[in-house]
Amino acid sequence: MNKNVSMAVIRRLPKYYRYLTELLEKDITRISSQELSKLTGFTASQIRQDLNNFGGFGQQGYGYNVEELQIEVGKILGLNRIYKTVLVGAGNLGQAIADYRGFEEAGFKLLALFDKNPKLIGLQIRGIEIKDVDYLEDFIVENGVEIGIICTPKEGSQEVADMLSRSGIKGIWNFAPADLRVPEEIIVENVHLNESLFTLSYLLKQQTEK
Ligand code: NAI
Question: What pTM value is reported for the model?
């Protein structure tokens, strides 16, 4: 596999993966780059270029074998394995994320939730227990957890990131509106829904000003 794949390509891969999975579910066995282009909104040449980064999966005049490509893109994304995760901040957002089965189905196994609110400790979401955040570090070490999901308010999020970093976490999925400082070997992926909402607002504004 080509290790120097650009981040722009990597950001498009989940979309390919999603559509390929949907095609498989509909028992569609092959697809052309033109058809993939219609589905994804990327140009056919962009798709061919993207997928060529990982070896030629397509054949002239045949298109792509959907199953083969879905498996390969899944492998490229590292989705052919299970990741152990924990979630910190079991409030509204944290509970909603924990309640969603889709992440687990994609291989992200949630082992426990953590919170500092005594009223929440001991409760379960989908059978997964909310534990006292004081036990977070020990739990991560004992269970070999690789991903920490932060759903605390901004205040406290850096403290949680420090705890995760100290206990050897590899990646952080951060929902708190904060730019976390972590050692460089730890990968942070931020999700800020309101940035996306503000982009929508901007585009709506552009349209009404036309
Ligand atoms: P919430 O108040 O319902 O939940 C926050 C939870 O974090 C509470 O249960 C609280 O006890 C816990 N907590 C606070 N400090 C903690 C600490 N140091 N250790 C362990 N647990 C701690 O709030 P909500 O609505 O769930 O929002 C949570 C965060 O997510 C906020 O920062 C909010 O801004 C953010 N948010 C982010 C979105 C995004 O797109 N990234 C979308 C919606 C909310």
Answer: 0.90
User: Rounded distance, CA 167 to CA 170, Å?
Assistant: 9
What class is the 83-195 domain? alpha beta
Ligand 1 mutation pick, 115, 191, 192, max ligand atoms within 8 A of CB: 115
The answer to whether the beta carbons of residues 156 and 164 sit under 8 Å apart is: no
**Cα(131)–Cα(116) distance, rounded to whole angstroms?**
8
Q: Which CATH architecture has domain 7-76?
A: Orthogonal Bundle (1.10)
Which ligand 1 atom is nearest residue 159's CA? 18
Q: pLDDT 10s digit of each residue in the chain, 210 long?
A: 455 678 888 899 999 999 999 999 999 999 998 999 999 999 999 998 888 877 656 666 778 889 988 998 999 899 999 999 999 999 999 999 999 999 999 999 999 999 999 999 999 999 999 999 999 999 999 999 999 999 999 999 999 999 999 999 999 999 999 999 999 999 999 999 999 999 999 999 998 887
